[in-house]
Amino acid sequence: MRPVYFMTGFPGFIATRLIRRLLVGEPDARFELLVHPSQRARAERERAALGSAEQFALVEGDITQPDLGLPTSKFAELQDEVTHVFHLAAVYDLAVPQQLAHEVNVTGTRMVNAFVNSLTNLQRYVYFSTAYVSGDRAGRVLETELVKGQNFKNQYESTKYEAEVLVQELMQDVPITIIRPGVVMGDSQTGETAKFDGPYFIMRFLEKFASLPIPYIGSGVALVNLVPIDYIVEATCYLAHAAAGAGKVYHLTDPQPYNAKQVYELICRELLGKPPVWTLPAGVVYAALSVTAFRKWVQVERETLAYFVEQSVYDTAQAQRDLGAAGIHCPDLRSYMAQEVAFYKQHRTDREKLIAVR
Question: What residue stretches are annotated with the Thioester reductase (TE) domain (predicted)?
């Protein structure tokens, strides 16, 4: 049976990379790509780069609407034909307002779940969550854990948590694989990424003070979980088809993460050619980033700092066991940071990659 993939989140970077990887193993697969009307023009450009319109159909709709905003005839067609669902569409902005985050991340997932429940030939439902559904938990977090009374650092975390709860409620009846990535970096070989967020904010921050003695920010003992996009894509495509992947949750995080001080120094050396030499209290930087003018000048979201004092330690036992059988492993950060920084330096003025800081 020719596989038919239904995917939300196109033309996003991860979705596009997933499609390209899936085609390696299944060149004749068909893709039904749900696209919000606001993304139509960009989606057309990305589809043209992928191949024929017959193989890659753009389906205009809205995950927040009943039946995903699709015409009745199209919805019925998909019910009979779709074999795999990849749900990636979400609002990822750490500073997102609560109403928008809930509408897209929670209501949207509820509507996708209803669609999944109506499919007659479903082989796998792959849901993209985040490791940070752990919220403010401290210590080791297992892949088998979710509801632990945690609080959350922002609306992104809380709504992704609510959404994963909804997906897990289907696991007894639907073959589901839940992916919980850490902070996603660019490609480990080329450095390619779509947006300069997360650790790239550090690069933007450091460049503002390149001519001065660079400080460390706080003690930096907390672990930082960075993973390259190619590891996420390779692992997801394998787990989406492996029998072992059904009914499981996977932390696609670094099994041997560096702490914040090590990551900061590694970036500093690669970007500026020198290490930090003194320490600035983290509270001072947080207070400075609370000032709009300073935040916009350094081009750093204040919410980013929370991920460099993270107290959670993500257990990857299931991921390492099931991916190890296929020879898939997360590369060491030191082996690819140079590529990440080089790509940033080459594209740092590209407006499409810059995150607007409010």
Answer: 8-235
Q: What are the phi and psi torsion angles at 251 (to 5°)? A: -80, 105
Residues 168 and 217 in one domain: no
Do the domain assignments include residue 356?
no
Q: Work out the widest C-alpha separation in the chain, in whole angstroms.
A: 64
Tokens of 318: 């299931």
User: Are 144 and 235 in a shared domain?
Assistant: yes
Q: Using only the alpha carbons of the chain, give its radius of gyration.
A: 20
Q: Are residues 34 and 140 in the same domain?
A: yes
Tens-place pLDDT, residues 155-181: 999 999 999 999 999 999 999 999 999
Range of the domain at 247: 4-184+226-252
Using CA atoms, how far residue 184 sits from 28, 126, 254, in Å, is 29, 18, 11
CB 341 within 8 A of CB 270: yes
- 300 and 240 in a single domain? The answer is no
Tokens of 27: 């060149």
Shortest CA distance to 314 belongs to which of 260, 355, 253, 240?
253
